[in-house]
Amino acid sequence: MAAPESLRPRLCRLVRGEQGYGFHLHGGKGRRGQFIRRVEPGSPAEAAALRAGDRLVEVNGVNVESETHHQVVQRIKAVEGQTRLLVVDKETDEELHRRQLTCTEDMAHHGLPPVHDPWEPKPDWARGGSLGSSPDQKDVNGAPRELRPRLCHLRKGPQGYGFNLHSDKSRPGQYIRSVDLDSPAAHSGLRAQDRLIEVNGHNVEGLRHGEVVARIKAQEDEARLLVVDPETDEHFKRLRVTPTEAHVDGPLPSPVTNGTSPAQLNGGSVCSSRSDLPGSDKDTEESGLHLSPTAAEAKEKARATRINKRAPQMDWNRKREIFSNF
Questions:
Q1: DSSP-H helix ranges across the chain
Q2: 3-class DSSP state for residue 204?
Q3: 198-207, 217-226, 280-289 — which is least confidently predicted?
């Protein structure tokens, strides 16, 4: 198996011969994308270093990963007599997927970014800590590490903001898939795998991909994005609290402990007042043990109230993976 630093996409420039380009393209069942099935010996495809098993990423500079077989064929035929194909072999494809990077033509020239490059996920997103650490772990200065959302101010450059927004049907929400090196997004502190919470002060957790993109584009040259890294996201979800700009520098919600309030044990928002949550007597403070009938009824009523307040679930089965570059 090749070392990760030697893996890179390949840009194949083909000039059509008398018998065509000399390769067979097919879409595999059970796997997404178009693949090179066969390369004819002595053909322009072989001369361009196209290989059987390669997955096709771009045609003449246009990403075709989400296009149908027919659409890809038409793109190849659109430029008469020649074509430019960006492809990845199986090992490179797996490495890109593992590191959650979007394949680009620039990678064919310069290789994949270093493993600890700022635009790639790395284990020290949270201040002074690691992704796998617990919220009460201490940083290098001995103080408890705080898991907070981050507010990223982006000002558009000549090439845009320099990040890729991604959503898929396996999990709700919009995620930062990759951040271009030395881009406005990188300088703002945006990081791969961040989940997007707010755009320009508006919560976007319940919006569709296209609606979120429209909000980002609403202000022509700048955007203000509130994001959480995976560990902060999980921490706030455990507390059942929605991150806001107030949490960037302000007070943070308290973690759930054995002595926590009924509002937290019953799944209510920490930001809610006690008067909004029934069942606040002593029995409900015992982690659900030995509840009196009255307290149990109150707990059930609180649960039903939360269910009724939940936003309707999006129909993720109707969607494929969606990507938008900025």
A1: 44-47, 69-78, 90-98, 105-110, 184-188, 209-218, 230-239, 246-249, 262-265, 293-309
A2: coil
A3: 280-289
Q: Cα-atom radius of gyration of the chain, to the nearest Å? A: 25
Task: List helix spans (H) across 49-204.
Answer: 69-78, 90-98, 105-110, 184-188
Tokens of 91: 């090992």
Parallel, antiparallel or unpaired: strands 195-199 and 10-15: unpaired
**Tens digit of each residue's pLDDT (9 = 90 or more) over 37-67:** 999 999 999 999 999 999 999 999 888 888 8
Structure-token match 């495809």, residue found: 45
Identify the DSSP state of 40: -
Q: For residue range 80-128, what is the model confidence (pLDDT) as tens digits?
A: 899 999 999 999 999 988 888 888 888 898 888 876 544 444 333 333 3
- Name the E strands within the chain: 10-15, 23-27, 34-39, 55-59, 62-63, 82-88, 150-155, 163-168, 171-179, 195-199, 202-203, 222-228, 322-325
Residue 157 one-letter amino acid: G
What the block records as the tokens of 297 is 């009824």
For residue 85, the cross-strand partners are: 12, 59
Tell me which residue of 189, 150, 156 sits closest to 326, measured CA to CA: 156
Taking the C-alpha atoms of residue 151 and residue 248, their distance in angstroms, rounded to an integer, is 7
How many C-alpha atoms does 214 have within 13 Å on its Cβ side?
A: 5
Report the pLDDT value the prediction gives residue 299, as an integer from 0 to 100: 57
pTM: 0.42
Q: How far is CA 150 from CA 99, 141, 145, 196, 203, in A?
A: 22, 21, 14, 10, 14
